[in-house]
């Protein structure tokens, strides 16, 4: 666990959440022992070994290849580290990372403020260790309350998620007043990306972004993690076009699908009707509804259900999908919330009527959560066939763009872009992508 009771409040226990540069947890060092080896014995054993190189240390501590190690660190590490065929103790690993500069505020230079949320402020920063840009998420610690549960949740989940389409947590810094999470830096989020191209995206780019979103989600869902707050602002994109899931503050590791969770999650526009009506028994399909809404928004340039209140949101959903009945959504008419709203009887309309710029955006919608397609299955629909077979066999940590044929196209709405001209335009027919909602 990452928290411990101290003086009547919860706080983060720093050593329990300490990670390497790529968010690697201590357990990865191959031992759970906290023994510290005798330096004399270690020195004698290490005399018989070859000279330790930067690469050896990078591998041993899971560090980025471009890290700058402090002067004299190689010799010091060689003296104190056990032979390479023996596991390092957790305490020695932590001490090694701390000496390099991890877990220290002075290792990072704070640059521009990028945004402010309910419990955190995000800054652009630079790591003195690698000279790379980072995102510094500063979480204020209220003296009485300690670290917010959202922060503890984000740290504990991201420690274990290693995927090309999930933002990397590089480091954690804990001071009395603040907990700082150091993430890899990505230039913009999907909302900014769509704004920059005048909400007219190349159909090819929509496909690449959707595939990466589903890849990241399938990985989470396989590990029983729900994101619960999917929206364009939480999908980060770099210049290459790599898309990564971010902001796991509301995410939950689900153990049993029937577990009751709070229904006060997920931004309204991307929230499924079962959750809007107060359902607290939800599972991975909560995220798949959001995927469908985001897909529609990328294709059309506008949100699918931009409601201002829960009632307004349900109204917008029912006006397009039809007011649910026992046939279309078994059990819904017994819901007290549903009866209270007393919705008019709307008939379902084809989604294509609401996407005039596209000849066919056919997204099959399901009120029933269990009928929504899974992220794993969605990756294999015919819509993605044009990306080729290689995309289906990528290892988790490999980028979609590691396949040389795959690259971003120029978006029709973007005036100055360095991407190749796209053969597809948003005004052309898009292939069918079914059952997302």
Automatic annotation (TrEMBL):
Residues 26-36 have a biased composition (Polar residues). CDD domains: STKc_PCTAIRE_like. GO terms for cellular component: cytoplasm; nucleus. InterPro entries: CDK, Kinase-like_dom_sf, Prot_kinase_dom, Protein_kinase_ATP_BS, Ser/Thr_kinase_AS. The keyword ATP-binding applies. The keyword Transferase applies. Signal peptide: none annotated. Pfam families: Pkinase. ATP binds at residue 137. Residues 17-38, 414-437 are annotated as: Disordered. Residues 108-384 form the Protein kinase domain. Keywords: ATP-binding, Kinase, Nucleotide-binding, Serine/threonine-protein kinase, Transferase. PROSITE patterns: PROTEIN_KINASE_ATP, PROTEIN_KINASE_DOM, PROTEIN_KINASE_ST. SUPFAM superfamilies: Protein kinase-like (PK-like) (SSF56112). Belongs to the protein kinase superfamily. CMGC Ser/Thr protein kinase family. CDC2/CDKX subfamily. This is Protein kinase domain-containing protein. It comes from Gadus morhua (Atlantic cod).
